[in-house]
């Protein structure tokens, strides 16, 4: 939980899949092609209220998550995504949505984004009625399960706890604390790339730890992510963006330190993290410049 304050071109084989690749200037660049007709789809799951059974298991109302939803919606719209929203989604609804999206045609899209706002545990995310493995969600978009996203960025932003430990922080002296369209290319060969390729997983916290959320302002992670996207979202590479998010959460002393009556939870910190399996740089260039 989080603390309250296709085509015939791809076949699965040995955890990898084949992808037609080409001799084309785009494949020789170190940056993903982001001038497809559409930016792509972004699915936002915003779970606030949970069943009685889940509440008995400790998964209470996530006050402040609607603020997160509003903030991230604005940023993804600004970046040009087509948004799909699910509020208070059960595990079945989540699975059905991702299965449906994975079967859609993303051939004319730059990338795909998912935002998960919910309770969680390490490697798991909560629907309103139960818990599912994150890997089950990721699996929908791997290899031949979603061939039209092969070779394109698949980004997951996850605001949820990954355990029950609290980050107390450390005192330090700081100086600065403040895909390819077929008509555009010449097909040359078929290669195999790992099914795990071109994923990026951005988490609000590190494994084993709580993720903090303010009932008035929303979660620390989503606040910071949206702040950085607003300032640099169309000019900085995604991993540089997420490094700035991590710094903002980690070093902003007054705003991002817990303030509770419980001494065991007071004055705690948080450290966002991300894992990248991207194979190129990713920049959300404005769509009107991508011609």
- Could you give the order of the helices and strands? EEEHEHHEHEEEEHEEEEEHHE
**Helical fraction:** 10-25%
Distance between the termini: 43 Å
Report the portion of residues in β strands. Answer: 25-35%
Largest sheet: 6 strands, mixed
Mean pLDDT: 85
Which CATH class is shown?
Alpha Beta
List keywords for this structure.
globular, six-stranded mixed beta sheet, 25% strand, 291 residues, alpha/beta, three-stranded mixed beta sheet, 7 helices, Rossmann fold
Describe the structure.
One of its GO terms (biological process) is positive regulation of neuron apoptotic process. Residues 189-286 form the Caspase family p10 domain. InterPro entries: Caspase-like_dom_sf (IPR029030), Caspase_cys_AS (IPR033139), Caspase_his_AS (IPR016129), Pept_C14 (IPR002398), Pept_C14_caspase (IPR011600), Pept_C14_p10 (IPR002138), Pept_C14_p20 (IPR001309), Pept_C14A (IPR015917). Residues 38-165 form the Caspase family p20 domain. This protein is α/β, with parallel strands linked by helices and 291 residues long. The protein has one domain: 3-Layer(aba) Sandwich (Rossmann fold), CATH 3.40.50.1460. 24% of the residues lie in helices and 25% in strands. It has 7 helices and 15 strands. The protein has helices at 25-28, 52-56, 65-78, 91-103, 134-139, 220-232, 238-251, and strands at 3-4, 12-13, 16-23, 38-46, 82-87, 109-117, 120-121, 124-126, 131-133, 154-159, 186-194, 199-203, 212-214, 218-219, 273-276. The strands form 4 sheets. Strands 5-4-6-10-12-15 form a 6-stranded mixed beta sheet, covered by helices on one side. A hairpin with a 4-residue loop joins strand 8 and strand 9 (131-133). Helix 3 (65-78) runs parallel beside helix 6 (220-232) and helix 6 crosses helix 7. The protein is globular. The termini are far apart.
